[in-house]
C-alpha cells in the first residue's frame, strides 16, 4: 500500500560482520521457469493461499472494470494437473486486504466491499460506496464456497493477521482512514478472531500505533511486531505480543526504520526482515535478523541493486518474496532504473542467501509481471501468476513455475 524499496548502503565492518557490501554474487545458471496453465481471469495484485490439499486458492485483483468482470470470483490452481478452475465467488468482498489459512483448513478473507451497477451495454460501469466498508468471509474448500462471518469490531485499512498456535488470529494495527484520507497514522488497536464461534474480541493495545508493519509468529507462540509507521513517521521499534497474557512488551529495535517490509521465521527460530521503504519513498536493499533469545536485531546482508531510478534512488515498484525450503529467499521484482528523470522498468528475479548475506540475480528470466503473485507449492517450487506487463500495462492471465 505504501511505497517501494530503497537502500541505505552499509559497508562491511569489523564491528558489524553481518553487514555485506554492494557486490552481488555471480549470476546463477541453474534457474528454471516452466510454463503452466492460464488463470480463468487476468489478475494483478491478487491474493493466494495454499490449501491443506496442496492446491492454491486465488482471489481478488480483478480491478480493470472496463472488461466487465465481477471482482468477487475466485479460482483454484491444481499443481498435479497444472490447471486452473473456477470456484465459488466471494459474497461481498471485492478487494481482499488479507487472506489466511486457518487451522481447520478453511480460509479467512478480510477486505473491502463494492457494488456493481449494470447498464444496457455489453459492459458494466463500476462504482464504489463511500465511505469504504469491509467484510469478513470464510472459504470452505469442501463446499468450494464463501460464507459471511462476523465483522471486525472496528474496521481498519491494511491490518496484519497472524495465526496463533491455539488457532486464533491476531489482527494488529492498520488505520481507520478513508479513501479520501489515506491512513498514515496507524492504530494501536488489536482484535482476536476465534474460529470456534467465528467472532472477534478485543485484546490489549500495542505500545504504539502502526501500519505497514510486520507480524511474525515466533517458536514460543508469541508474535514479533516490527517497524511500520505512524503519525510520527517511520518506526524502527518492535514489540512482542504474548497470547497467554494478551499483552505487549517491548523488545530490541531494528538497525534502521522499515515499513512495507517482509519478515520470515527461519528454521532456527530467528526472523529475517527483508527490504522495505524509506521515509523518502525509496527502497531499502538491506536485511537484518531478529534473535528471540536475546531480543536483539543485527544487520545480516544486502539485496541485489537494480540501479537507481528517476530520482537518484533505488525504486522497486513491485516485489514478491518467497522463503524456499533450503532457507534462501526468492524475490521477483520490477524496478525503475535509468535516472535523469526517465522511467524504464527492469524486471528480474534474485535469490538471497542467508549464509553469505549476498543476493544473486538469476540469468534466466520469467515473464515480466508487475504486481504479479508468487507462492510456495508443496513440491518446493514457486507458482508465479498474473500481474501487469510493465511494457504495455496489459493484464496477464498466464502463470509459470520456478523449479529450484
Protein architecture, described:
The protein has strands at residues 33-35, 47-50, 56-59, 74-78, 83-87, 93-101, 107-113, 115-117, 125-127, 134-140, 145-149, 160-163, 169-172, 190-194, 199-202, 214-217, 223-226, 229-230, 233-234, 238-242, 247-250, 262-265, 271-274, 286-291, 296-302, 315-323, 329-337, 344-353, 358-361, 373-376, 382-385, 399-402. The strands form 9 sheets. It has a 4-stranded antiparallel sheet, with no helix packed on it. It has a 4-stranded antiparallel sheet with strand order 2-3-4-5, with no helix packed on it. It is 0% helix and 39% strand. The protein starts with 32 loop residues before the first strand and ends with a strand. The model is unreliable at 1-29 and 116-128 (pLDDT under 50). It has one domain: Neuraminidase, CATH 2.120.10.80. With 404 residues, the protein is an all-beta fold. The protein contains no helices and 32 strands.
| CATH homologous superfamily annotation | Kelch-type beta propeller
- Class of secondary structure makeup: mainly beta
Residue share in helix = under 10%
- Find the CATH topology: Neuraminidase
Q: Architecture, according to CATH?
A: 6 Propeller
Please give the alpha-carbon distance between the first and last residues. Answer: 30 Å
User: What is the number of strand segments?
Assistant: 32
How many helices?
0
The CATH class, by name, is Mainly Beta
Question: For the largest beta sheet, what order do the strands appear in spatially?
Answer: 1-32-31-30
List the domain count as a whole number.
1
| pLDDT < 50 runs, ≥5 residues | 1-29, 116-128
Radius of gyration: 21 Å
Report the portion of residues in β strands.
Answer: 35-45%
Task: Assign an overall shape.
Answer: globular
